[in-house]
């Protein structure tokens, strides 16, 4: 049976398309509460917005685990026909043949030249002989990846994190910072400087201008990703939900998950990493089950539940070579998700089956071209709510005066998505993509 790793192509998959769908679901769910149409659509008690956020975390766990734990460029693949050593991340000692001669490239008849590296290796070997019974690889000073045969017999080799390459903790956190924070800071500033004043022009009952100290504090009070100021004085006075950007609540939990995975991969010994990660996922699931009823939304509740979804994706990454990828298993996973939804325990119990279902769909759906070059899902997520607030202010009076009835919710949801797309595109091309280009300046840790 095909494994999840074999079915999932990191460069040609549909996860970006799925994330785009999830971002649209968040906007659609908010159309109900912003427009005053009642509760948003729900799947057995869980609104589609929360369902989408949990899906984001599950996908993110898999992708971020791949980023943090993947092998580094310094680790070279084992050449064809050469058996890889059964260890990972160690520098192999040279064989006696290598120590005697190290031929330069060219004709076979060309005299061999003993390099300085070989001389140093010979000196080291004089002090400590190579362990008996283990054949040294014929290359010198290179780190080999395990062969496919080694991975089949010892899959733990693949699941060990690389702690010394370019994905060390500092570089990893720097890259995660570039992905989230510049666009987050920009939407705070745009809301305070552009959206808030514009809202006072669209709503005659509001004050002539927003409170500028409140607008400034909106930016500075929320710099930590933990949103403590939701509104700006003098704005959205007639809005049903007088807050500017509710979806930002989840970003602090995502950042905490990034930090937890990064630190975990740096401090846990390699041979214990998989076991510790599985134990952490189980502990988060159990704690979420014992402390919530699946619907509460406190900080601790969300941290436990969303952490479980994130680490469900991490666990799937660690076991991707042994996890089958098949339609029957995906159907079973979908059935489990529906079952826990019906029982009212979606958040504490649906993490692993939902993560598997999304990754399976990401592997088999032919949507790999969507979002492959330009990923606007994050922009849709962070700009949807404020754009919807402005859209409602701009249209509710016109629509009511023409028809005497409120705008149909389906029309408002559709207009909300369409109106947000330009802001998401601007965020990607002007902020997110340029920020991601700064990854080359990430710290480069030296190997121990």
UniProtKB/TrEMBL annotation:
Residues 77-159 are annotated as: Disordered. The keyword Transmembrane helix applies. It comes from the Bacteria. The keyword Transmembrane helix applies. Residues 93-104 have a biased composition (Polar residues). InterPro entries: Acyl_transf_3_dom (IPR002656), Acyltransferase_3 (IPR050879). It holds the Pfam family Acyl_transf_3. GO terms for cellular component: membrane. GO terms for biological process: polysaccharide biosynthetic process. GO terms for molecular function: acyltransferase activity, transferring groups other than amino-acyl groups. Residues 13-67, 165-423 form the Acyltransferase domain. Coiled coil: none annotated. Keywords: Membrane, Transmembrane, Transmembrane helix. This is Acyltransferase 3 domain-containing protein. It comes from Cryobacterium frigoriphilum. The lineage of its organism: Bacteria, Bacillati, Actinomycetota, Actinomycetes, Micrococcales.
């Amino acid at each position: 049976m095909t494994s999840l790793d074999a079915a999932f192509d990191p460069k040609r998959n549909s996860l970006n398309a799925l994330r785009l769908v999830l971002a649209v679901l968040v906007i659609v769910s908010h159309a109900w509460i912003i427009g005053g149409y009642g509760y948003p659509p729900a799947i057995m008690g869980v609104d589609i917005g929360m369902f989408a956020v949990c899906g984001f975390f599950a996908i993110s766990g898999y992708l971020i685990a791949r980023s943090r734990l993947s092998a580094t460029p310094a680790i070279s693949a084992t050449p064809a026909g050469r058996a890889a050593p059964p260890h990972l991340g160690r520098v192999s000692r040279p064989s006696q043949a290598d120590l005697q001669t190290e031929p330069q490239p060219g004709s076979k008849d060309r005299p061999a030249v003993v390099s300085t590296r070989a001389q140093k290796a010979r000196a080291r070997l004089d002090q400590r002989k190579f362990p008996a019974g283990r054949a040294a690889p014929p290359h010198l000073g290179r780190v080999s990846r395990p062969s496919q045969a080694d991975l089949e017999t010892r899959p733990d080799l693949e699941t060990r994190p690389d702690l010394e390459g370019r994905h060390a903790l500092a570089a990893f956190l720097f890259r995660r910072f570039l992905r989230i924070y510049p666009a987050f800071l920009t939407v705070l500033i745009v809301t305070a400087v552009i959206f808030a004043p514009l809202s006072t022009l669209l709503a005659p009952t509001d004050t002539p201008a927003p409170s500028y100290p409140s607008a400034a504090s909106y930016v500075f009070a929320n710099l930590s990703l933990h949103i403590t100021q939701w509104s700006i004085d003098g704005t959205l006075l007639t809005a049903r939900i007088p807050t500017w950007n509710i979806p930002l609540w989840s970003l602090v939990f995502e950042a905490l998950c990034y930090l937890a995975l990064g630190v975990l991969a740096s401090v846990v010994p390699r041979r214990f990493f998989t076991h510790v990660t599985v134990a952490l996922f189980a502990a988060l699931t159990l704690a979420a089950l014992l402390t919530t009823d699946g619907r509460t939304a406190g900080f601790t509740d969300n941290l436990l539940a969303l952490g479980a979804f994130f680490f469900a994706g991490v666990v799937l990454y660690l076991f991707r070579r042994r996890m089958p990828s098949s339609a029957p298993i995906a159907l079973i996973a979908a059935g489990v998700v529906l079952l826990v939804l019906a029982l009212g325990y979606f958040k504490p119990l649906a993490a692993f089956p939902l993560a598997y279902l999304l990754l399976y769909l990401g592997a088999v759906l032919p949507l790999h071209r969507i979002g492959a070059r330009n990923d606007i899902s994050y922009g849709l997520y962070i700009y949807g709510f404020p754009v919807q607030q402005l859209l409602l202010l701009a249209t509710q009076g016109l629509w009511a005066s023409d028809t005497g009835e409120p705008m149909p919710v389906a029309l408002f949801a559709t207009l909300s998505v369409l109106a947000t797309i330009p802001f998401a595109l601007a965020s990607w091309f002007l902020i997110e993509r340029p920020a991601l280009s700064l990854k080359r300046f990430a710290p480069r840790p030296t190997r121990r």
